Amino acid sequence: MRHGRYPFIIGFLAIPVAIYVTFVIGPYAQAFYLATTNWRGVSANPKFIGLENFERLLSDDIFWKAIRHHGLLLLAMPLLTIAIALFFAFMLNVGGGSRGGVMTGVWGSKFYRVVFFFPQILAVVIVGVIFSRVYAPDDSGLLNGALGLFGIDPVLFMANPNIALWSIIGVLVWQAVGFYVVLFSAGMASVPKDIYEAATIDGAGRAAMFFRVTLPLLWDTLQVAWVYLGIAAFDAFAIVQVLSVDQGGPDGATTVLGMEIYRNAFSYSQFGYASAMGVALFFLTITFAALTLRVSRRDTIEL
Amino acid sequence: MTTEMAPSAPVAPAGTGKAGTRAGTPAVQRRREVGLLSGLGHVALAVWAILVIAPLLWTILASFKSNTEIFLGNPFALPKEFSFDSFARAWTEANVGRYFLNSVLVVSLSTAGTMLFGAMAAYVLARYPFPGNRVIYYLFVSGLAFPVFLALVPLFLIVNNLGLLNTYTGLILVYIAYSLPFTVFFLAAFFKTLPQSVAEAAMIDGASHTRLFFQIMVPMARPGLVSIAIFNIIGQWNQYLLPVALMQGQGADAKWVLTQGIASISTSAGYEADWAALFAALTLSILPMIIVYAIFQRQIQSGLTSGAVK
């Protein structure tokens, strides 16, 4: 039976490991080296310049702008998405009250769940392009057309630097809510029904039920959601590239690190500097994930 | 219905007489709270459903309109006549058809590759202890922690050095590579749960390790494989950063995938003011998703959320 065990193991692992090391591990390792060079362009030779790229990064206005935008995204997007999704998930699972001891959703729950989830399967790019027309700055856009019916002047959703980033956050929330409704629904469905029964007998209303029963039991799922949305907040490249004015504009008002990395690498051929930004992004993401898991650690409620 | 009785709430209704004043008032308060909450809840649900449907429906309707109708007409009006001109323009001149087929080609091969290599690696790592097993496993899983942007520049250089820039082969290999961490992580956990007794019986009957995998383990792991396949198909179909970094330069547009194509049509529609063709291109990329979603709605939901539910 032992016969041919090692040839089999090697045969099965060789190709996947080779592909993975070549295209994933290799580039990640190289990125840290490239970040310490002044490499510009495929034909030029890289020269080691130590931490110069990082010094330059610290005095780069557009880098700090991007960081601030990630900060706003990191706060607003998860908060809005989770709040809306939690409310809907609660309505769709428990909102209908108890029927024969089983908590049910409100009327039409199934329909809502199916509709809400759909944007999730569309590419961010497609969604971005759709919203570039929804947000169109004249009456031909869906939103300004609607505002026009009430006699409100067209809003420059993407051209006004004060609201451009919020308009982008709106699109991200629009797309994400359905996914988290489904995710939280799965969490709520796994709460044993006798806990709800007991709470009903004790006279808990729906609000009390939500804050005292559902929310604490859903803590783990919420934590997962927060990490997912946080990581998404450090991306936002595709939506910014297709939806914003001048890819991150107006005047850098919506730019994100991914956009700047892409721009530095492929428009300016500043490979070293772009890699330094990549390294900064990596440390930001890792710090966020570690902090979230630490801060939100709480005793899990055993069911 | 429930809200109508709200004004009479301070007075205990006769119906609750049995419970008396002690329990009557809280019960009514609760019912009022319930009525208000579910009333608001229903409105909120309906509003969100409209918010989700409206932009999509509007896009589909606008694709039948002419450019003048889109630009000067009421955005809420139905098309005057259902014209398919814009679809013809989107399909032939804007090459949506080609981009669509490119996406189908790339994603079908890369998902097949991801599933084959991912399942092979996950199976060996989950069920065959050997020195270095954990090292390789964590090498794969560590890929989940890194943002793709970190790898972007070196990846571009490596693909370029291999002569794979602007090739389907290059893009497919890169898709497979970046899908492996999650696929291996998920499937290794799945293969671990399969019973050892079946494997032993098969080995006693003289099956080789390879036959055991393909004829017994893969069929047993089907539910897990289906979930992760859906996850990969949708993830790779919607991928934008990798193709935009690896399929660029002169002549690359013939090999663009759909997301790239749509982004570029969106830019050129701005110059040419051909919004009808843009809406048609969008419709052509949304409609298949609606059809697929209508059929596999349950599997897609569980496939996409499988990553978050342990």
TrEMBL record, chain A:
Sequence intervals crossing the membrane: 6-29, 72-91, 111-130, 165-186, 217-240, 271-293
GO terms under cellular component: plasma membrane
InterPro entries to which the protein is assigned, alphabetical: ABC_transporter_permease (IPR051393), MetI-like (IPR000515), MetI-like_sf (IPR035906)
Membrane topology according to the record: Multi-pass membrane protein
Main location group: membrane
Alphabetical GO biological process terms: transmembrane transport
Subcellular location, record wording: Cell membrane
Keywords of this entry: Cell membrane, Membrane, Transmembrane, Transmembrane helix, Transport
Boundaries of every ABC transmembrane type-1 domain copy: 67-292
Domain of life (superkingdom): Bacteria
CDD domains: TM_PBP2
Record-stated family: Belongs to the binding-protein-dependent transport system permease family.
Protein name as catalogued: Sugar ABC transporter permease
Organism expressing this protein natively: Micromonospora globbae
Lineage: Bacteria, Bacillati, Actinomycetota, Actinomycetes, Micromonosporales
Automatic annotation (TrEMBL), chain B:
Pfam families according to UniProt: BPD_transp_1
Compartment annotation: Cell membrane
Membrane topology, from the record: Multi-pass membrane protein
Broad class of where this protein is predominantly found: membrane
Single GO BP term: transmembrane transport
Domain ABC transmembrane type-1 residues, every copy: 100-296
Listed transmembrane segments: 40-61, 99-125, 137-159, 171-191, 212-234, 275-296
InterPro entries linked: MetI-like, MetI-like_sf
PANTHER family: ABC TRANSPORTER PERMEASE PROTEIN MG189-RELATED, ABC TRANSPORTER PERMEASE PROTEIN MG189-RELATED-RELATED
UniProt family annotation: Belongs to the binding-protein-dependent transport system permease family.
Protein's recorded name: Carbohydrate ABC transporter permease
Biological source species: Micromonospora globbae
